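Allow me, if you will, to draw on your knowledge of protein folds for a short while. I am sending you one protein, given as its amino acid sequence and as whole-number tokens for its backbone shapes. Kindly check, if you would, that the fold set down in the tokens agrees with what the sequence suggests. The record follows directly beneath this note:
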Amino acid sequence: MADLLVAPWILAIPVKRTAIAKSRLASAYPQHRPELARAFAVDTTAAALASPLVRAVLVVTDDPVVAADVSAVGARVVPDLPSAGLNEALLHGATVAAAEFPGTGVAALSADLPALRPAELTAVLAACVAPRSFVIDQPGTGTTLLAAAPGVALDPRFGVGSALAHQASGAVSVELAGIESVRRDVDTAADLAHAVQLGVGPATADVMSLVLGAATGTEGIAC
């Protein structure tokens, strides 16, 4: 009976060193790009941990500031020992998850979902009933979440055109209405503007307040 009370998913969230992350935000936010990248990761992690279907979140990163921030909200940090790219980091995280939480499904989640809502993530995870499932991002070409059932290899294929790559690998797309926050990853200034409209988490809102304050010569403007 106790097993029924254990959340069925471990989430692996890969985070680049913020010195090089979110390069496409550099032109719009040259002074705050690293802070935004860290804030996205913190808000994504905190929202994921708030889902009742998430047993633990493993953040795969070599960024010490990100590591401290996500640890503070309850995540477990896994060093990116492969240091060979996104898919390799996720495979490493999935391996650690399988060893530490046997019999639990593993889902790879983008770290760039600052508007993520726990209820929407919960709906997505509940719909991941195929051996491998994935969520297509807002533009329709990428992937924000890839889930593998217990005992099934994650087989991540993130990168350009990952939605088609994951579909070709046999993963099943999760088709649900009302999961905009799970699909809204942020790569560009336009993406961030949309995320703000949806409602970003507190860490991202704090940085956006600084951004707006710098732009107007004031401080403490609410996002």
Summary: The helical segments are 33-49, 64-72, 86-100, 118-127, 162-168, 180-183, 189-198, 202-216. The chain is about 40% helix and 15% strand.
